[in-house]
Structure formats: structure tokens, C-alpha cells
Amino acid sequence: MMLLALVAVLFLGGLAALISERWSPATPRWIALAALALEFVLVLLQYLLTTDQSSAWIADLKRPWIARFGIGFHLAMDGLSLALVMLTVVLGFMAVSCSWTEIKQRPGFFYFNLLMCLAGTVGVFLALDLFLFFFSWEVMIIPMYFLISIWGHEDRTAAAIKFVIFTQVSGLLMLLAIVMLALIYHGDTGVYSFDYFDLLGTRLDADTAFWLMLGFFVAFTVKLPSVPFHTWLPDAHTQAPTGGSVILAGVMLKTGAYGLLRFVIPLFPEAAHQFAPVAMALGAVSVLYAAMMAFAQSDLKRLIAYTSVSHMGFVLLGVFAWNLLALQGAVMTMLAHGISAAALFMIAGALQERLHTREMGNMGGFWTAMPRLSAVALFFAIASLGLPGLGNFLGEFLVLLGAFKVSMALTALAALVMILSPIYALFIIQKAFHGPLRQPYPIADFGYRDMAAMGLLVIASVWLGLHPHLVLSETEPSLQTLQSSAAMESTDEQ
Amino acid sequence: MNSSQLIAFLPVICIAAAAVVVMLTIAVRRHFTLTCLMAGLGLLVSLLALAMAGRQGPVQVTPLIRVDAYGRFVMALLLAAGLAVIAFCYDYFKNREGENEELLFLILAALLGASVLVTSCHFATFFIGLETLSVSLFVLVGYVLGQSGSLEAAVKYLVLSGVSSAFLLMGMALIYAQCGQLNFSGIEQYLASQELFNGMVLTGIVFIVAGVGFKLSLVPFHLWTPDVYEGAPAPVTAFIATVSKGAVFILLLRFFLSSGGYFYGPALTVFSVMAVASILVGNVLALLQNNVKRMLAYSSIAHMGYLLIAFIAGGRIAPNLVVESVTFYLVAYFMTTLGAFGVVSILSTPQAEAVALSFYHGLFWRRPGLAAIFTFMLLSLAGIPLTAGFIGKFYIFAAGADGRLWGLLLMLIIGSGLGLYYYLRLIVVMSMSQETGIDAGHEAAFGRVSSVILAVLTVLLVWFGIYPGYLMSLIQGLY
Amino acid sequence: MNIEATLVSDLLPLIVYFGAVLAVTGVMLGGAYFLGQRHSAKAANEPFESGIVPAGDVHIRFSIQFYLLAIFFVIFDMESVFLFAWSVALRESGWPGFIEALIFIGVLLAALIYLWSIGALDWRTRRQRIDAQKSGRRE
Predict the structure, then answer these.
(1) B33-68: pLDDT as tens digits
(2) Which CATH number goes with the domain that contains C128?
(3) Helix axis angle, B388-402 relative to B319-347, nearest 10°?
(4) Which residues span the domain enclosing B402?
(5) Which of A97, A411, B16, C78 is the most exposed place for a label (fewest CB within 10 A)?
(6) DSSP states of A142-200 as a string?
(7) Does residue A37 sit at the B interface (CB-CB below 8 Å)?
(8) Which CA distances in Å does A128 have to A132, A134, A193, A259, A349?
């Protein structure tokens, strides 16, 4: 029931926020905060109350839903989803925090969409019924669309529509693959089922498996995103309001990676294995291409958006390398990037709120004007370039280590980014924070609320880097299960 | 006619009686609200009669009509849609000049035709039902006097509909010439006894497809759709989009299922081409529209294309999944289309139809309830979860994937992508800030009855979107 | 084959007749076209070549009521055709047929009442009607 509550709290919180706008424009944000706090407590409780170590699954909830097609309301949580749900909650706090003053127009509807979006994301991380998964997958898109198209910046409409069309079309490909998989299962056993565990063992011939795998793969790589499906991302991230960017970059991109981990490889181990070189190559190309593109941007948010693509390339690389090291690296990168990207977007958002521009040409000299903001920015720029001791470094290092065993050439290629990423990270610092101050008027530095939020992220980032043991050990059983199920399948096939 | 036949046929009789009563009411006293009430009451009585006949098995009423559970379900759907349309009509016409009472009579007559159509098992009732429906629609489309657009639409519909009827009759004649049978089961028996394809029957089927394709506005027989949708008063547009198309589609499905039309692969090829063309043309042209009614018209063309995918799958998969998919999709489509045109009709004033995008500027902030309803309807048309439209699309996917219709499903995906663009554009316009919108003096009155209907439709839409099990099991038991 | 053969022999007189009609009309029209005289004089297209020059438009506007009445006549006339069919099979259709015919006539009657009461059978213009009402009040 706890799992249902995890989704329901956000959902109901969203509704409450929508209604509460009638009383005062300030209530929705408090309600959003309260809903997230409750969610945090619930996740924590769920984690602490679980004593059963025998299975990788911490909690499991299964109810019949649409009996006609054997669709169940199946939620379950293992270490991997726990970590990602935790990330979602933390970044949810961040999104609320950075929208605190930014959103003045229709706050009720804003927080409604924000919480719906988070509810959908949590649903994606918990769903173990493929239909429910797709359902949640789509549910998180529309609120995000509203966030971008109503509260976004100048080109918001085009960016929002581009985002929805990319994700929706690729999502439909996935739906087709899901339906096909269920139909094949039906053909084998005579019953309909969309349950993950039922479908896990479905026997497929190689061609079918390949096409179905491709359906899932496209949907997830669009979301991830990876070259060549990344073009929606810079626009969406740039145009979204800060809170939206934080959720997009911090959480939503992870749903793509999560999908690859949870569904693509376990469901189609053979096909995924065959496809791995292509996928890894895409990953490596994304890493390099996006890093170079980032360097060419003058728009601060766009630059950060491209660095996201670059980091997500590592995840793709790690997932398809498919050994424990690389998988752990991928998960680590997901978490660490979630934190660092969210922080960078918050800084960019704060700058935009103060300067009304995102052009780095108009920035400079903030080091003296806004010492606190600048210090935080420096920290996260360095985190994102992969300074040892911080989470990002660990993740990338593990991915490279794991991938090296599989493909030396691609790993070497991807490792080149170790040169490129300092360039763009330091480029931001140099352009925006050093040099003469261009604004004649005084600019407000980060206040207590912002510093508290940032402090939390700094701590999280350092903790991930210095004490990764907890995360690694929590996710290890589930990763091992995933890996072994895939491995078992492939030996079965032979 | 024995008693069970009478009970089975009673709903249809009730509608006919209601039409006559409405006519006499107008003769005695011309009063719009009264007439609406009478018409609504007539439909309710008819629905009651349907409920009474509920548990009856299939009944053959004369050789022309066969009332079975499926027919009853669809008839109930049509009547419910008719009720909604009457509610929209009430708010739309109550403050308008002119003698609007006959509208109700025409709606009842059209419903009579549609009800006959969905229970027909014979070419005679096929044709009579279709013509009763169409003739009422000509007048409904041109009902608002003094609007040249409306008149033009009516004439266009009349002429093209006449041509399509001629095609239909030609097709029936060809099939009759070969089979010597006019009822569907007789045709099936004849076709089952033949070993090879019969050229004449195939030609006949293709002619019928052309005739029916016109009513369903499938490309290339779609040219009337945008003009008629635009010209007709909004509630009438809702009626054409739902009752007329729904009844004809169900008839087509029943004809193919019971007369063995599915044996004819080439006919399915024709349908596949029409489906692809409808999806592409409908969606691409909808992209270019700035007129909400025209946009919805093109989108309805595309939706008929989607629906055809499930229909075509019937050539390869078990009929019950086809019937289920088509019916669920139609139910969702009915709710959504009624809702969308209901919003348009509420926003319309006697001075102007709410077709320009400017009517929708900042609707979210002016009338949040209405905008939320419209958003749900549009999302359902786009097939986004939490709405019945998504489950409908899921059914199409299931039927199409089961029938291995990859090309068509790919079209469906492409079409949905294109569709999202124009549905979302409308949502964007609604969410724009109020300053850019029009002044409040333009605002339409608050239609209370329509609003209640819209609220009910939205609740149903979301309910069937989240918990479709009930509706699914209902439909599943029908065929 | 057999059926088709008999069909052809049955239809033969009809086909011959059809052809003959076409031929005769064709000969008449064609003969007039080829043998007739042609004039291109100024007044050639006038109704009377040497009479009074016609004045006014030939397109006279009829009252809309005329069309309405004509349509009603056609409709009710058509409906009576169904009654003929019934009367031919009066004994075979029995009581159910009688009841159905009654219903049919009842619906026709309802339509007539409706038309009467909305004033569709009234041959006066609106102006005339208003005048009549006024004069009626005066009396």
C-alpha cells in the first residue's frame, strides 16, 4: 500500500494545490512542499521498514486493473527504483524551491502540473506492469508540456510541442512493441498479461525480438536522449521555466535510462546483445558530439542542456556494456548527473531571474557581485566536468572501466570527453563569473532559501562521490538480478 | 409480429412515435423549450424500452431487421448521443430568432434512420435507414436561415450524398444480380458456396465501399466534410460527426461480418489504401487549419482512418476483438467528439460561431472549467492516457498488431504525431494570457444544460480512461 | 447460359423498341437540323419575328407557396402509392396489415395537421395575412 501512497500523495497534492489557489496565491507552493515532505517520509519509511533481505524487491503491490487484457496495477520497488524515487523527491524539493518566487502567474496550476509530472515519474520508476508503465510514461509528458508552454520563455510553444511530439511518437512505438509482446505471450500461453515477470520469459524468434527491442530502445533513447534523437532537448530545456528544467534534466531523462535498464535488456537479452555495439557507439557519439555542441553555445541553459546529453551518453554506454561495474557506473551517473544538472539549471534560472537574459555574452564579473552564487556555480561546473571525489567522476569512471572490457575503441573515444568537458565547464566560469561586471545595477546574491537548497545538493554530490557504498550496495542486488535474468535468458536461448 | 418481436422493435417504434408527437406538439403550440423536452422525453422512453428489451436474445423482426444485443448497445449509444445533441441544441438555439422547433423533429427522424441502420440485416433497411438519416441531415445542415455558408454546406451535402447513394444502390444491384439475395446472411450463404472470387460481387462491394466511404468521409470521398462541418450549426456538426458516422460504421462492420465480405481481400486492400490516405490527408490538412470546426473535421477524417485499421484487421483476426475494438473506439470517439463540439456550441453566440482561434484565447483563465473540459477532449482525441481515447487507441493497436498490419500501425503512429501538433496548438491558445484575447463583451451566455452534459461526458471520459474494465466487459459480452 | 439466353429473347422486343425510339427521335431532330433553314437576322431570336417587341422579363417570379404546394402534392401523392400496394394485398396482409396501414395514414394525417397549423397551406403572403387579420378585427 505504501507504494500506492507514493503515487497518490503527489497526485492528491497536485489536486489540492490546484484548488488551494482560490484562497491565496501562496498556498499552492506550501502544499507542494508538504506533499513532497510527506513523500520523502514515505520513501524513507519504506526503506527503513524493509527488513527482508532475501529478495531484491523491497516492496510489491499487485492489484487487478483491466481484467480483459490481464493488465494489473503492479507497483514494485527495488534498490534501483528506490534510489531514483529518492532522487525524484529531492529534485522535487529543488523545483519547488526555485519556483518559489519565479512563478507568479497561476501558481496553483503550476504546482499541480509539477506534482502531476513527479507523480508520473514515480509511477514510471515503480510500475512493473508494462501497460501501467506506458500509462505513467505518458502521464508525465502532458504536465511537462503545460509547464513549458505556459511558464516557459520566449519560444516556449514550439519547444513544448517539439518535446511532446518526440516523446509521444517514440512512446507509441514502444506501445506497439508492448502490445506485440503481450500478444505473443497470449499466443504462447492463451492468457493475456502485461506483467513484467510474466513477459520476462517470453520466447521470441530473433527477428521479432530485434524489432520489439528497437521499439523500446527508440522510446528510451529519445527520452534519454541520445544522438540522433536529442534535438528536442536543448529547446525544451532552454525554454522551460527553471523548475521545469530541473525536473526535465534531473529526473525525466533518467526515466529513459531506467527503461533501458529495466526493460530493454532483461526482456530482449539476445537482441540487445546483438545491438549493443550500435547502442554503445551511439552513446560514445552522444558523449563527444554533445560536449562539442555545448562548447559552441552562447546561451547558458542551452549549454547545460548539451552537457546533459553528453552525460547521458555515458549512461547509454554503461547500460549496454552490461557488466556490473558499468551498470553501477550508469546508475551512479544518473544520480550524480541528476543532482549536478539540476543545480546548474537552478543557477542558470537564478541568473535569468536577475538579469533577464541567458546570453553568456551579457554576463561576467559575478564573482564579486554574487559570491555565494558564483561559488556554488564553480562547484557544480567542476562536478560536471568530473572532478574526482564527486559523484559524476565516480559514475563516469565506473562506466569507462566497465565498458573498457567490452569495447576498447568506443571507450577510448568516449574518454576523450575528459578533455572536452573541462573546456566547457571552465568556459562557463570564465564567461559568466570572471571578468568585468557588465550590469551597472546591484544584483541580489543567493538568499537563505537558495543556499539551503544548494547546500543540500552540494552535500548530496559530495556524499555520492566520497561514500558511494550505500547507493552501490543498495542497487547492487537489483542490478545483479537484472543482469542474471538477462544472462540466464541468453544461455537458455543457446 | 409476436410480443417478443414487438418488445425488440419497441425502441425504434418509440423514436418514430416521439417524432410524430413532436410534430403535433409544434402544430399545437410553438414553444422551443417544450419541444426540446418532448424530444428528450421521447428519447428517454426509447432508452427505457431498450433497457426493457435488454436481456433478450437476438430477435429477427421481419426479414429486414435483426435486433441483437450489439444492435441494442449501439442504439443506446446513438440515442444517448442524440440526447446530448438535443441538450446542446437547447442552449444553442434558445436565444436565437426563427422557428427552431423543427430541428428536434429532424434530429429524431435522423435517429430513427440511424437506429434502423444499426439493426439492419438486409439491403432494403440498409438503404432506407441511410436515406432517412441523410435526408434529415440535409435539412439540419442548412437549418440556420440567412447564413450562406450553412446553405452552401447543405446543398453540397445533398448533391454529394445523392451521388454516394447512387453508388451504394449500384453496388447493391450488382451483388443482387450475382447472388439473387438481398439479406446479408443469404449473401454469405451464396458466397460460401462459391469457390473463387466473384468479379461482380467484388465490384459491388467496392461500390458499396465508395458509398459508405462518403458517409464516413474517408479520403477520397471526404471533400464535403470540412465545408459541412463548418457550415452546419455546432450541435448539428456534433450530430453528424457522431451519430451519422457511428451508425454507418457499425453497419459496415455488421455487413462485412455477416455477409462474408472479409473473404474479399481486394476490398480490404481498397480499405487499407483509404485508411492510409485518410490518416495522412486528414492530419496534414488539419495542421493547416485556423478554423476550429474545420480542424476537427479533418481530425475526424483521420479518426475514421484509425478506426478502419481495426476494421481491416477483421480479415485476419477473430471477429470478437474487432467488434470490441471498433466499439470501444467509437464510444470514446462519441464522447470526445460530442464534448469538443459541445464546447464549440457553448462558446458560439447568435452573432458568430466559435470557430476562430481568437474565441479560445486565454479560455483557461476566463472559463477554466470549459477550458479544462476542452483540454480533456482534445487530449482524448490525441490518445493521451487518463482519457478513454487512449484506451481506444490501445484497442486499435491490439487489433492491428494481432492482424500484423504493421504499415497501417506505422501510419497510426505518424498520424498521432501530426495530430498532437494541432490539438496542442489549440491547448496552447487556450492557455495564452488573457490580455491578448478578446474582450469579455464577446462572451457567450452560460449554457447550463450543455454544461451539465459536458461535465458528465468528461467524467465518463476520465472514468473509462482510468478504469475501462466495466465498459470493456460490457462490450465484450455483446458479440 | 440458359437463363441469359431466355433473358435476351425476352428483352429483345424491348431493346428493339428502345432502339426504334432513339432512331425516330434522332431522325426527326437530325432531319430538322440538316434540312431546316437558318436565319441570322437581327430579330431572328425574338418570339414573334414581325410582331410586337416583347416587354419585360420572361422569368416571372412565382410565389414560394406555389412550390410548397407542389411539393406537398408530390409527397402526399407518393404516399398514396403505398396504399395502393396495400389495397392490392389487402386480404393477404390481414389485420396486421390493416393496423400498419392505419398507422401509416395516421402519420400522414399528423403531417397534414402539422402543415395546416403552421400555415403552410395558406396561399397568402404575409402582408395579405396581416391585412386580413386587421380587416377581421375591424369587422
Answers:
(1) 999 999 999 999 999 999 988 777 888 888 899 998
(2) 1.20.58.1610
(3) 150
(4) 264-479
(5) C78
(6) HHHHHHHHHH--TTHHHHHHHHHHHHHHHHHHHHHHHHHHHHHHHHHHSS---BHHHHH
(7) no
(8) 7, 10, 12, 11, 35
In a domain, B458, yes or no: yes
Number of C-beta neighbours around residue A4 at 10 A: 13
Please, are residues A364 and A434 in contact by the beta-carbon 8 Å criterion?
Answer: yes
Counting the structural domains of chain B, the total is 1
ipTM of the complex: 0.90
Sign of CA dihedral B453, B458, B463, B469: positive
Q: How many CA atoms lie within 13 A of A56 on its CB side?
A: 16
Structural domain containing residue C21: 2-138
Contacts of B95 (CB under 8 A, 6+ apart): B350, B445
Coil, strand, or helix at residue A53? coil
Contact status of A185 with chain B (Cβ, < 8 Å): no
Give the neighbours of chain A: at least 3 Cβ pairs within 8 Å: B
Q: Give the Cα separation of A290 and A308 in Å (integer).
A: 8
Q: Is B262 on the interface with A (CB under 8 A)?
A: no
Distance CA A80, CA A94 (A): 21
Q: Phi and psi at residue B162, in whole multiples of 5°?
A: -60, -45
Total of domains in chain C: 1
**B416·A145 Cβ contact <8 A:** no
CB burial of A12-43 (b: ≥16 within 10 Å; e: otherwise) equals bbbebbbebbeeeeebbbebbbebbebbbebb
The reply to whether B287 touches chain A by the CB within 8 Å rule is no
What confidence category does residue C123 fall into, taking pLDDT thresholds of 50, 70 and 90? confident
Minimum distance, in Å, between the CA of residue C103 and any CA atom of chain B: 10
**Can you tell me whether residue A204 is helix, strand or coil?**
coil
Q: Identify the residue among C114, C122, C126 best suited for mutation to test binding to B, counting B beta carbons within 10 A and taking the highest.
A: C114
CB-based contact B214:B151 (threshold 8 Å):
no
Residue of B384, B394, B416 with shortest CB distance to A142? B384
Rounded CA separation A406/B14 (Å): 75
A161/B contact by beta carbon, under 8 A: yes
Question: What is the C-alpha separation between C48 and C39, in angstroms, rounded?
Answer: 14
Site from A162, A172, A192 to mutate, B interface, most B CB atoms within 10 angstroms: A172
Alpha carbon of B33: minimum distance to chain C alpha carbons (Å): 18
* pLDDT at residue A486, as a whole number: 64
Closest C-alpha among B68, B46, B65, B73 to residue B57: B68
The nearest CA of chain A is from the CA of B427 a distance in Å of 9
Average pLDDT (A150-159) is: 87
Residue B444 — very low, low, confident or very high, per pLDDT cuts 50/70/90? low
Ramachandran area for residue A50 (φ above 0: left; ψ -120 to 50: alpha; else beta): beta
What is the radius of gyration, based on Cα positions, of chain C? 27
- Cell of residue C109, nine digits: 394525417
Quick one: C105 exposed, middle or buried, by C-beta within 10 A (0-12, 13-18, 19+)?
middle
pLDDT of residue A492: 43
Any domain includes B419:
yes
Is B157:B141 a contact under the CB 8 Å cutoff? yes
**Type of residue at A157:** T
Over residues A135-147, the pLDDT tens digits come to 999 888 889 999 9
CB–CB contact C113 B27 (8 Å): yes
Grid coordinates given for B25: 406538439
- Min Cα distance A222 → chain B (Å) is 14
Q: What residues of chain C, 80 to 139, have a C-beta less than 8 Å from chain B?
A: 96, 106-107, 110-111, 113-114, 116-118
In a domain, B276, yes or no: yes
Which of B23, B29, B64, B145 should we substitute to test contact with C (largest number of C Cβ atoms within 10 Å)?
B23
